[in-house]
Design goal:
Elements lengths: L1 H7 L4 H6 L4 H8 L1 E6 L6 E2 L3 E3 L5 E5 L7 H13 L7 E6 L3 H9 L3 E7 L7 E2 L12 E6 L9 H11 E8 L12 E2 L6 H8 L6 E2 L4 H7 L3 E5 L7 H6 L8 E5 L1
Parallel strand pairs: 5-6, 5-8, 6-7, 8-9
Antiparallel strand pairs: 1-2, 3-4, 9-13, 10-11, 12-13
């Protein structure tokens, strides 16, 4: 199996997502083991797949759900710290992730709506800066790894705040550089090559720093900066292939 193993180590995540569904079980079977576990489906493997734009990070992409570290972190938080899987909730999920979509749709307790301007898998075609929903509509709003693509992120955040019910919860993950006190953005940078160089990805328009949480607070959110991996044992952080120190921005209205 050496050739197959080499191929596995070089498959980028976007291509994996587009693969036929029969391919994933083959990969999962080949990598089956007991070293690492995807908490989303409970399946274990001897290793995870690599992932990254340009330089790939090893051992981060689950062969079964195609989840990354950030997906597994939010799943654990929802499962262990909230009533998301048991209480009746009206949920808006912007740009829904593949690893969550089917599972969340199957939840009988959820009135689950997905939205995106371009994604063919979303229920509603919607611009995050002009959402087609009444104010105070949703108990929970998810919007993960979206805001770094939006130039007018303040308007987008304001829309997320508007449609969330009082007392509701939002989780808005972003790629974040905690070594930066202030977010780095420059809208004169427009080429794909320069955006990749400055912001890490061709379609990103900024790199968020520590002030991201204050940007959310500025539109009205109460923000709890949750270092959830800190509550887990080192063994579990390694077993679930999480990133130590990643902050979950848990927002309430």
């Amino acid at each position: 199996m050496p050739i197959f193993k080499t191929v596995l180590n070089t498959i980028p995540r976007p291509l994996l997502i587009k693969m036929s569904y029969w391919v994933r079980p083959v990969i999962s079977f080949y990598l089956k083991g007991n070293t690492y576990t995807d908490p989303i489906d409970g399946k274990s493997f001897k290793k995870f797949l690599p992932y990254g734009y340009g330089e790939q990070r090893p051992n981060v992409l689950s062969p079964s759900t195609l989840s990354l570290e950030r997906h597994r972190l939010i799943w654990l938080y929802l499962k262990n710290e909230t009533d998301f899987f048991t209480a009746s909730k009206k949920v808006l999920h912007m740009a829904p992730e593949q690893c969550f979509l089917k599972l969340f749709k199957q939840q009988q307790n959820l009135d689950y709506i997905t939205a995106d301007l371009y994604s063919p898998i979303a229920d509603v075609k919607a611009d995050i800066c002009d959402l087609p929903f009444e104010e105070n509509t949703f108990d929970i709003v998810f919007c993960n790894h979206v805001l770094e693509h939006i130039e007018d992120d303040k308007k987008a955040m304001s829309e997320l705040y508007r449609v969330l019910k009082p007392g509701g919860m939002g989780i808005f993950q972003i790629p974040q550089d905690l070594s930066l006190d202030k977010t780095y953005e420059d809208f004169t940078i427009t080429s794909k090559e320069e955006r990749k160089k400055h912001f890490g990805q061709y379609d990103h328009v900024r790199v968020y720093g520590k002030d991201y949480f204050d940007r959310l607070r500025a539109v009205g959110f109460n923000v709890n900066e949750v270092d959830y991996s800190k509550t887990l044992s080192t063994d579990l952080v390694e077993k679930y292939c999480l990133v130590k120190g990643e902050i979950l921005p848990v927002c309430t209205k």
